[in-house]
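Pasting as-is:
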Amino acid sequence: MKLTEHIANRGERTLFSFELLPPLKGENFDSTSQTIDPLIEFDPCCIDVTYHREEIIYKERADGLLERRTIRKRPGTVGISAAIKFKYNVDVVPHLICGGFTREETENALIDLYFLGIDNILLIRGDNPAGEKSFRPEPGGNRYALELVKQAVDMNRGVYLEEDIINPNPTGFCIGVAGYPEKHAESPNLATDIQHLKEKIDAGASYIVTQMFFDNAAFFRFEKACREAGISVPIIPGLKPLSTRAQLSALPRTFSIDLPEDLVKEAEKCTDNRQIRQLGVEWAIEQSRGLIRSGVPVLHFYSMGKSDNIQQIARAVF
């Protein structure tokens, strides 16, 4: 079922969803199940699976020189999405990114998902290559998420890259895109960022999932600005509970977000990560309750591979 159909059929209740990482190369499905199993009781409307671009590593050879290698540490997004769908009978939302993929590779991935009966996708540009300050698309790939959306929308219309396909079948993907309550790190301001977001909606995207935030006021400002800009699709808030002291600096640096002063002050009083993890749970519970009161259609949680804290939050609010 499409995520927009889940939302249309929800009545007055707020739905639950979460995101997980595909396992590292060499791991099996058990690591994924360990994240999912504690959360199934909350009847997730869907489970997101992230996509990861290639990384460059350097290995020292026997002669002392460095050998440059390209690896993908977390392959298998399509396969894991299919395994989740059929094991748990839950809708999945695989992510597709621009970085590291040609348009043909993107089309082939979408065809695979279509054959698997997967109805939902989340399309994002993706991160810069490791060590590079600016985004570099793959030769023959999409540079912006807008281009990725347009390619998926074309396939929904039966338009493929190869023009002479006989009787091309249209796909039927429900397309989601990312929103940034505190603006994307590369945008000059929030208004410009929202204008780019509106272009993706106008091109055919059906819903928005936000970057993590720790202050609901940031989400409400973003939501209001989106509506004023003419964006009417569902906007789903994304939450990530604080879990370690290192995240006090790592999250703002990595995701270009602010942590509220009150949260930081309380975290500084904690003597170990166990206390910080519990603080993160309590903070996210209050965030969740405030967002539910406002009528958000779905609460979406970023698990980062661990789900015990999300389980505590869900038990308190769902």
